[in-house]
Amino acid sequence: MTREIVVQVENLDCHYGDFKAVSDVSFEAARGECYALLGTNGAGKTTTLETVQGFRRPTRGNLRVFGANPSRKPHTVRQRAGVVLQSGGHFGEITVRQTVELFASLSSRSDDVDAVIARVGLDHRTKAVVQTLSGGERRRLDLALAMWGRPELIVLDEPTTGLDPESRKTLWHIISDLKSGGTTVLLTTHYLEEAERLADHVGIMHEGRLAIDGTLDEVLASRPARMTAEIMQAPDDWFPSPPPGVSITFGEKSGTRTVTVEADDQQASLHWLLQDAHRVDAQLGMIRANPASLEDIFHQISQSSGATQ
Predict the structure, then answer these.
(1) Is a pLDDT exceeding 70 seen at residue 69?
(2) Does residue 190 contact residue 158 with C-beta atoms inside 8 Å?
(3) β-pairing, 5-16 with 256-263?
(4) Are 34 and 199 in contact (CB under 8 A)?
(5) What HEC string does 9-58 produce?
(6) Fewest CB within 10 A of the end CB: N or C in the chain?
(7) What is the mean pLDDT of residues 220-236?
(8) Average pLDDT, the chain
(9) pLDDT digits (tens, 9 = 90+) for 120-136
(10) Which regions of the chain carry the CATH code 3.40.50.300?
(11) How far is 263 from 169, CA to CA, in rounded Å?
(12) Cα 76 to Cα 53: distance, rounded to the nearest angstrom
C-alpha cells in the first residue's frame, strides 16, 4: 500500500543567531500514522514542530505539509491541522461546553459540540467550570479543541505530562482512535512507553540533530538485544571469548556473579552462552532475555556527543 505523505521535512536548519537549534533534520509522516519525535530538553523538538506548523521560518531546508510550504502558506496548513501545546490556556470561569463553543466560533472547521465533547469522554462534565476540572480532564479538553472539525493532522507537544497513569491511558486510546480514522499525529513526549504504544515511526533528536530515524521496529533493531544470567557456580577463570558480533560483561548483583551478553541475534548468542557454560561445567541460574528497548536507545544517544543521523 502506498503511503500518503502528509508532512515532509528535508535538511531542516533553524538558527538563533549563531546558535544552531536544529541542524540537517529530515523525516516524514504519512496519513494515519504517528511520528514520535523524542529527545532531551533543548534537543530541538519544539523548534522543529513550530517550523512544521509555520510559526517559525527555517534558516534552510524544504518543508511540505499537505504539499504546501507552512511558512509561506500557514493558513492553508492550519485550516487542516490541530495542536495540543505543552500547557493549554483556558478561561477558568466558563464551562467545558462554553469553551468548545468559543473555540468553534473562531475555527474555520465545523463539527458538533456535543459529539466532540463525548469523543474525549467529557460528556458528563459539559456544565462543569473549567477551573474545577482535574489535570487529566483539562488535557482531554485541550485534545477536544485540537480535534474540532476532524483535522487531518494533529500536533501533540508532550500531551500527557503530569497526568496520572489512568488519565494517560485514556488519552492514548483517543489518539489511537484518531489514527484509525486517518489522522496523522506528530508527537513529542518524554514518556518512552507512550512512544512505543502510539508511534509507527520514531526519531530521536540530540543536540539539534536527528540521531536515529525509522519505524519503531527498525529503531529497536538498531541496537543489540541483552541477556543477563546469574552464575551459580563456575570456575573463577571462566572468561569466554565470544563469537563476532557478541559482547559479554561480567558483574555482580546482590552478591551473585552475573554475565551479560549483548548481540543482534538473541537466539544464537543464548545458544553459544549455554554451550560455553556446559564446556566448563558452569551452572547458570535465572536468565533474563530482553530485546533492545526504546529507553536503552534513548539513553545511549542522550549520553553521547556529536550524534549523527
Answers:
(1) yes
(2) yes
(3) unpaired
(4) yes
(5) EEEEEEEECCEEEEEEEEEEEECCCEEEEEECCCCCHHHHHHHHCCCCCC
(6) N
(7) 85
(8) 89
(9) 999 999 999 999 999 88
(10) 5-80+152-220
(11) 33
(12) 10
H or E, element range at 217: helix 216-221
For 22-64, what is each residue's pLDDT tens digit? 999 999 999 999 999 999 888 999 999 999 999 999 999 999 9
Three-state SS for 89? coil
Q: What is the C-alpha separation between 39 and 33, in angstroms, rounded?
A: 20
Angle between helices 135-147 and 165-180 (to 10 degrees): 10
Q: CA distances (Å), 123 to each of 111, 127, 141, 145, in order?
A: 15, 9, 11, 14
Residue 73 CB-density burial (10 A; 0-12 exposed, 13-18 middle, 19+ buried): middle
Q: Which three cell numbers mark 30?
A: 504519512
Instruction: Judge whether 179 and 153 are in contact, CB under 8 Å.
Output: no
Q: Write the CATH number of the domain with boundaries 5-80+152-220.
A: 3.40.50.300
Q: Please state, in angstroms and rounded to a whole number, the distance separating the CA atoms of residues 253 and 230.
A: 9
Which residue's C-alpha cell is 533534520? 25
Cell of 260: 551479560
Q: CA 152 to CA 135: how far, in whole Å?
A: 26
Residue type, 68: A
The architecture that CATH gives domain 224-291 is 2-Layer Sandwich (3.30)
Residue 258's Cβ-side half-sphere holds a number of Cα atoms within 13 Å equal to 16
Distance CA 143, CA 59 (A): 31
Helix and strand totals (H; E) in the chain:
10, 13
| Intervals of CATH 3.30.70 along the chain | 224-291
Pairing of strands 5-16, 60-65: antiparallel
| Cα distance between residue 50 and residue 40, in whole Å | 17
Residue 1 burial (CB < 10 Å; 0-12/13-18/19+)?
Answer: exposed
Does pTM top 0.70 for this prediction?
Answer: yes
SS3 state of residue 283: strand
